[in-house]
Design goal:
InterPro entries: P2X3_purnocptor, P2X_extracellular_dom_sf, P2X_purnocptor, P2X_receptor, P2X_RECEPTOR_CS. One of its GO terms (cellular component) is postsynapse. It is found in: Cell membrane; Membrane. Belongs to the P2X receptor family. The protein is of the alpha+beta class. The chain has a domain of about 180 residues: atp-gated p2x4 ion channel fold (Sandwich), CATH 2.60.490. The protein contains 10 helices and 18 strands. Helix 2 runs antiparallel to helix 7 and helix 2 runs antiparallel to helix 8. About 5% of the residues have low confidence. It binds 2-acetamido-2-deoxy-beta-D-glucopyranose. The site of 2-acetamido-2-deoxy-beta-D-glucopyranose has 4 residues, from loops.
Length: about 400
């Protein structure tokens, strides 16, 4: 118990031991060099630790799709196939559609095979289902062996073949993106003031053009048009702004990348693609309402803007220079481990490095003449420099 207490109340102070050994010396310098290379090459040049970063990018996106196509014998223009119509950063291009015209509110047989029946009993158990085309009344229509529904009739039959709008591959998507880095008050747009807008984006030859051919976007995302146009899907257009504001602001340009966002479900049998329903409502002359139901398969585009900007600033520079200088000292830790454990004569080094001085010894005047230390290696040690550090010569 006493030993533990006296052990706790001791004070450790460092003493410099100069080791004249080539191998440890070389390891020490190499370790220091590696640490310096890491800080200069990675931390400063690559990660630009001398800059302050603004990651709170402000962005606004406007989009416009153009082109004409034929779907179900209709000529489709932008107002027909783009939803929502506002031109926001998320929009859908409808590429295929089931149309169920002239639906009115009444009762009629369900179409889905899951609702087949021969007696009313089979239908009563479905009465609270959500997946029918209308509310199941509990009656069985025996002529067609299906349950009766109340709702918009006739019920939609979406188990037919579907053709897609092949002209959609030549549609163009115009993207207008304006961003600001509030910390530096820098505003940029994804095209110059006098960019010629009769161009198509190309990731190699024409990276400044903000007009994208729809089939190209799918191609860059690794998809092909025929697959995605029949079932629908979700494509992400990423606009990345990585700006180094130490250079001229004109070099602050966006980089576009394309991904299929719903690729996790590409092979899923339960849910594939992307579709939604909408209806257009009409009134007949006798005042009765009817509607046309559309089940639309669409390619949904999400435009995701990200980015950050950096600029030289004194405070991060000083902090990182100090961190770099401190870290050079880490080489000592490595060398100590090697010196005290793996080199020949490690025991003697240990004896030199850790020295116990008790209260009474330190008070003794003779301590000043190196008498108090337990030096037993060689008598050729000498005071090496003004700090009173010991020097041990050891030929390796
Ligand atoms: C798309 O445009 C190209 C070139 O203008 C044309 O050859 C091709 O037939 C068009 N595709 C469709 C489906 O109209």
């Amino acid at each position: 118990m006493f030993g533990w207490i006296s052990g706790f109340f001791t004070y450790e102070t460092t003493k410099s031991v100069v080791v004249k050994s080539w191998s440890v010396g070389i390891i020490n310098r190499v370790a220091q060099l590696l640490i310096i290379i890491y800080f200069v090459g990675w931390v400063f040049l690559h990660e630009k630790a001398y800059q302050v970063r603004d990651t709170g990018i402000e962005s606004s996106v406007m989009t416009k799709v153009k082109g004409f196509g034929f779907l179900n014998n209709h000529l489709m223009d932008v107002a027909d196939y783009v939803m929502p119509t506002q031109g926001s950063s998320m929009f859908c291009v409808i590429t295929a559609m089931f149309i169920t015209p002239n639906q009115t509110q009444r009762t009629c047989p369900e179409i889905d095979k899951n609702f087949n029946c021969t007696t009313d009993k089979h239908c009563e158990k479905h009465q609270s289902t959500n997946v029918a085309n209308g509310k199941i009344t509990g009656k069985c229509i025996t002529e067609v062996e299906r349950c009766e529904i109340l709702g918009w009739c006739p019920a939609e039959d979406d188990h037919q073949n579907i053709t897609s709008m092949s002209e959609a591959e030549n549609f163009t998507i115009f993207i207008k993106n304006s961003i600001r880095f509030p910390l530096f008050n820098v505003t940029r747009g994804n095209m110059g003031e006098n960019t010629n807008l009769s161009c198509f984006f190309d990731p190699i030859n024409n990276t400044d053009c903000p007009i994208f051919r729809l089939a190209d976007v799918l191609k860059y995302a690794g998809e092909n048009f025929t697959n995605i146009s029949q079932k629908g899907g979700e494509i992400g257009i990423n606009i990345a702004w990585m700006c180094n504001l130490d250079q001229h602001v004109d070099n602050c340009k966006p980089k576009y990348t394309f991904t299929r966002l719903d690729s996790a479900f590409k092979k899923s049998s339960a849910t594939k693609g992307y579709n939604f329903r909408f209806a257009k409502y009409f009134k007949a002359e006798d005042g009765s309402e009817y509607r046309t139901l559309h089940k639309a398969f669409a390619i949904r585009f999400d435009i995701l803007v990200s980015g950050n900007a950096g600029k030289f600033h004194l405070i991060p520079t000083v902090i990182n220079v100090v961190a770099a200088c401190t870290s050079v000292g880490l080489a000592t830790v490595l060398c100590d481990i090697i010196l005290l454990n793996f080199l020949k004569g490690a025991k003697q080094y240990k004896a030199k490095k850790f020295e116990e001085v008790s209260d009474s010894v330190s008070r003794s005047p003779s301590f000043d003449h190196h008498q108090g230390s337990q030096m037993t290696i060689k008598r050729e040690e000498k005071s090496s420099d003004d700090s009173g550090a010991y020097s041990i010569r050891h030929q390796m």
